C-alpha cells in the first residue's frame, strides 16, 4: 500500500495531523493497535447507556481560542466547569486548595486576607525549588502538604513528592478566595455528543483511511509512505535502544449503581489518604446525561500496563533527550504527542503540537 502520509495512532495527535494533512490534499492512512479511535480520550456508552470514559476522565479546557475554534469544526459543545473534592479527615473539601478548603478543614471562618496571612505564616521558604515537595511546601506548608498531596502523590506516581520534578506540583494552584473550579481557562466545555463522535468527524475525509487493531511494528514494511507521523512511545520506536523510558499506568474499575440519581456531589472526588485508588469519577456530571442509575469509575495507578504518564524526574528527562536527538535527525518522521515527545501534555497542548507539526509540513 502506498500513501502520502502514514499516521500511527488515532488519538488527538494523530487525528489532528490526519485531518489537516487530508485537507491539504494528501492521502492519509491512520492505524491504531486498539480496536477504536480516540486514543485515551475515547468514550462509549456502557451496558446501561451511560457515556463513560474507559481510560479515565478527559475534561477539555484551554485558553487558546484558535484551538477551541479548530475543534469546534467537528463538535458542538456542552458548557462544563470541572469541580473536584478531596476526601480528607471525613470531609469533602475543594481542591485546588482555597478559602473554603482551609476554613472547612480547621473549622475557621477566615476572610481572604486571613487565608493569605495563614498561608504566609505556614509556607516553607525554599529557594531554589527543585522538587514537587519543594513546590508544595513553599505554597501551602507542611500540614496541607501532608493531608492533600503527599499520599496522593505516592499512589499516583509510586514516588514521594521529593522524588518528582517541581513541574508536577506546579500544575495545581493555591487560591485565597472561594473559586472552586479545577480549571480557570477561558474555554471549558465537553463535546456535546462525546469525544468519539468528535474523532469520527475529524477522520471523515475520503482521503483518510483508518485501520484499527493494526500494530505499526508488524505492518511497517508493508506500507510505503512519504511521511510518517508517530504518536506512540518514543523509546519504542527505536526499539528501546538506550533503555526504557518510565511511564506510569492506570487500572480502572467501573461500576454501575442502579436506582441512584448521583453518587457524589461533583464529577471527581480524590482520595489522597484512604483506599488504594486515587479518585472516583461519576460520568453523569461530565456529560449532563439523565438516567435512572449512575456509573462511576475508580482509578488505580500502577507501574505496569498501558503507558499513560511520562514520569517527570531529571534522570528520565535526560534519557528522553537522548531519544529526542535521534528523532530530530529524522527527515521523514514526525513525533507528536504525550508519548512520542515524553511530555506531560494536556489535550489542548497535544492539539497545538499537532497543528504546529503539520503546519511545518505545509498543511
UniProtKB/TrEMBL annotation:
- Describe the location of the UDP-galactopyranose mutase C-terminal domain by residue ranges: 148-344
Q: What keywords were assigned to this record?
A: FAD, Flavoprotein, Isomerase
Which Gene Ontology MF annotations are present? flavin adenine dinucleotide binding; UDP-galactopyranose mutase activity
GO-annotated cellular components: cytosol
Tell me any Pfam family this protein matches: GLF
UniProt cross-references to Gene3D superfamilies, sorted A to Z: NAD(P)-binding Rossmann-like Domain
Entry-linked PANTHER family: UDP-GALACTOPYRANOSE MUTASE
Q: Which family does the similarity line name?
A: Belongs to the UDP-galactopyranose/dTDP-fucopyranose mutase family.
Know the name of this protein? Answer: UDP-galactopyranose mutase
Origin species: Prosthecodimorpha staleyi
Amino acid at each position: 500500500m502506498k500513501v502520502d502520509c502514514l499516521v500511527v495512532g488515532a488519538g488527538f495527535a494523530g487525528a489532528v495531523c490526519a485531518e489537516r494533512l487530508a485537507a491539504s490534499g494528501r492521502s492519509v492512512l491512520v492505524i491504531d493497535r486498539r480496536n477504536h479511535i480516540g486514543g485515551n480520550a475515547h468514550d462509549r456508552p456502557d451496558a446501561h447507556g451511560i457515556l463513560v470514559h474507559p481510560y479515565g476522565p478527559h475534561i477539555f479546557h484551554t485558553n487558546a481560542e484558535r484551538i477551541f475554534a479548530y475543534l469546534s469544526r467537528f463538535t458542538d459543545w456542552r458548557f462544563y466547569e470541572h469541580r473536584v473534592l478531596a476526601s480528607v479527615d471525613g470531609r469533602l473539601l475543594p481542591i485546588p486548595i482555597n478559602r473554603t478548603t482551609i476554613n472547612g478543614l480547621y473549622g475557621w471562618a477566615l476572610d481572604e486576607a486571613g487565608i493569605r496571612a495563614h498561608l504566609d505564616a505556614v509556607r516553607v521558604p525554599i529557594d531554589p525549588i527543585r522538587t514537587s515537595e519543594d513546590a508544595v511546601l513553599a505554597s501551602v506548608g507542611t500540614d496541607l502538604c501532608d493531608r492533600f498531596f503527599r499520599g496522593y502523590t505516592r499512589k499516583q506516581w509510586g514516588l514521594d513528592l521529593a522524588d518528582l520534578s517541581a513541574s508536577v506540583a506546579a500544575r495545581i494552584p493555591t487560591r485565597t478566595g472561594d473559586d472552586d473550579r479545577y480549571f480557570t481557562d477561558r474555554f471549558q466545555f465537553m463535546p456535546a455528543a462525546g469525544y468519539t463522535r468528535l474523532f469520527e468527524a475529524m477522520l471523515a475525509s475520503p482521503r483518510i483511511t483508518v485501520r484499527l487493531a493494526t500494530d505499526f511494528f508488524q505492518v511497517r514494511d508493508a506500507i510505503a509512505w512519504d511521511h510518517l507521523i508517530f504518536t506512540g512511545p518514543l523509546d519504542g520506536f527505536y526499539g528501546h535502544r538506550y533503555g526504557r523510558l518510565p511511564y506510569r499506568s492506570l487500572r480502572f474499575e467501573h461500576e454501575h449503581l442502579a436506582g441512584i440519581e448521583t453518587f457524589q456531589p461533583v464529577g471527581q472526588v480524590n482520595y489522597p489518604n484512604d483506599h488504594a485508588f486515587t479518585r472516583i469519577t461519576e460520568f453523569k456530571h461530565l456529560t449532563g446525561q439523565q438516567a435512572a442509575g449512575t456509573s462511576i469509575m475508580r482509578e488505580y495507578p500502577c507501574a505496569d500496563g498501558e503507558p499513560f504518564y511520562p514520569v517527570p524526574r531529571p534522570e528520565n528527562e535526560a534519557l528522553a533527550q537522548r531519544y529526542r536527538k535521534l528523532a530530530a535527525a529524522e527527515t521523514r518522521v514526525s513525533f507528536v504527542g504525550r508519548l512520542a515527545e515524553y511530555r506531560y501534555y494536556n489535550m489542548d497542548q497535544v492539539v497545538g503540537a499537532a497543528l504546529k507539526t503539520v503546519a511545518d509540513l505545509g498543511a
